[in-house]
Design goal:
The chain is an all-alpha fold. It has 20 helices and no strands.
Length: about 450
Amino acid sequence: MANNSLGPFVAAATLVATGYSGFVFIGSPGVAYEYGSLELFSNTFYTPAFLIATLFFANFLRRKAASLGSQTIPEYIGQMHSKGAAGRWLQGIVAVIMILLLGVFLVSQIKAIGLLVSGWLGVTPTIGALLITLLVIGYTMFGGLRAVAWTDAAMVIGMALGSCVIAYVVFVQVGVGELIERLDAVDPELANPTTGAPYGDSPASAFLLLPYAFLWAAALPFMSVRFLAIKKNVSMARVGIWVAVLGLLLNFTPMAGLYAKAYFPDLAAPDLAMPTFLEHGVGPLMSSMITLFILFAMKSTANSLMHTVSTALSYDLRSALGRDKGFMARMSFNRLMVLIVGVCGFIGMAYLPPVMILWLGILGNGTLMAALFGVTFFSTFWQGNSAGAFASVGTGFCVSAYLLLGSDLGWVQGPLYGCLASAISYVVVSWATRRATVPARVTMQAEKGK
């Protein structure tokens, strides 16, 4: 937990850098290229969502975890619902789900890194991804969450500058009027969409990004673990101010996708929108600088994912199995897990079928968010038991995964329905099992009295 050493700016910077990652610099322009200007509107909801999570959820999580002595989110979930073997089982199951789903998201980040670096360095996407993956493995292995947070703080400054440059090109050099005319010539739906694709049937579906992004910040372990690392005397209002400022500066990136669609409407894949903008929309020097800033964005999430997944392997699974001594309890084992996670992520990227990066990220993040909604966020309002927690995790996982993979619902609707199912099963199963155990306890006490 970085020894609870993060101040307000570093805490906000690592939260924003991780949240506004490769998806906002590669995935979001790709969605704008494919579906039009609605993505520009949708993207703005991440800032208020992160701000609300920081102001109204972070303090509770930070204080409760400190009182329990929790060092990770799976451990916090286990300790919240049981002190015995059931809590350890819950911690282990949550860790396994995290490894699976965050591993999917890590693969999408490494793929985005490869696409970006290949054009920048003149190498193949695989070689570019390998170079950056090894770099991220190196400083994450030896610096832990402290290194992740401080490198994120440096990275987010460059990310904000890159976003502002994109806005300057579109608003000043090109002009909004000309951009809209060109988009209308390609397809009138691009500038003035009548549907909410890819988020739903109606343009109002874009509003679903607000609760989705809020739950993303509150329930996803690689985001919420940052709340546990903030200094105890830091005001969350100060953290929130920095979150708002940095988030607002990062809302211009989908314009790069609209620019690419207006001038280059026949790209082979939507995710090539940002590289196309960098090649044709700005000069070589500025292109290199923005590429570096985008690389910052993707690294900020890749290092967080490596840290969280390797911690689930080296700490949470070890704790669940009761392996508190020997090599598995040493720092060298933790670092070995970072190396293994990074290498596996790279291998997964090499065999990944062609899919949109943003969709792959939502598959991993959205499903994990639904699985953990009941036991992390909803439990702050109504405390269930371990049986309800197991049911909540399984229900949220299955519902979200099915709706994303087997239905035609919008991208954020599946995870949100999964969150609803997670909360309902959490309450129903906890209530039912409590009703079943109370009479049994009364009977046992009566027998003892006789």
